[in-house]
Amino acid sequence: MKKDILFYQRFLQSTGFYKGLLDGYWGPVTAKADTGFLKESDKIAKDLGTFDTRSEGEIITLIPRAQKEARKFLKLALEHSKGVRIISGTRTYSEQDAIYAQGRNGKKGPIVTNAKGGQSNHNFGIAWDIGVFNKNGYVTSEGPYRELGEMIMPQLINLEWGGHWKTFKDVPHYQLKAVSNSVAAIRKLFEKGEVYV
Fold this sequence. Notes:
Blueprint: H1 5-14, H2 28-48, H3 53-59, H4 64-80, E1 84-88, H5 93-101, E2 127-133, E3 139-140, H6 145-152, E4 159-161, E5 173-176, H7 183-192
């Protein structure tokens, strides 16, 4: 996220860490906000436990409230399936656009999302995807994704699960409930640096 400074400033401001202008400039105010965010993230990890390197690298990209829920989720998930990892967290708009382009306009790979940059809750630090890895270290599409969601969701009332969606079921997807079900409304708040959860 730090490569897109304006994006990161919005992320930090909406969570109360950044108090400066949304100007895309990395100065002392942004650096101080970054330090505060990392310190809070560290505290959450100490309080709720740490996991594998891949999951940790994705959890740190989430807003603090989502980090807490992701850690609670992963602890419960690992009780049922040892190979569960968080494999995707927050994406900048440009990262989302790159994923959207996959499988379209001659780009290699399968289509994996219908959301462009700014159209996914992954763009606002509140969503993550999981992978279930086999003993050889490869993600399996045959893992217990649905069973995990069905078992865990009743215990985590602050989350939504893509397996419950009506139109586009996304069983590896989990997200923190926000102030609106409208991604456009959340995007508007995020881009102003305002609270959306």
